[in-house]
Amino acid sequence: MPPEIDALAILLLVIAGLTAGWVDAVVGGGGLVQLPALLLMPGVSPLQALATNKVGSIMGTSTSAITYYRLVGPDLRTAAPMAAAAFVAAIGGAAVASRIPAEAFTPIILLACLAVATWTLARPKVGRTTELRWEGHRHVGAALGLGLVIGAYDGVLGPGTGSFLVIALVGVLGYAFLPASAIAKIVNFATNLGALVFFVPHGAVIWSLGLIVGAANLVGAYAGARMAVARGSGFVRVIFVVVVGALVVRLGWQTAQQYWF
Question: Membrane-spanning regions, if any (predicted)?
Answer without folding.
Answer: 79-97, 104-122, 137-157, 164-184, 204-223, 235-253
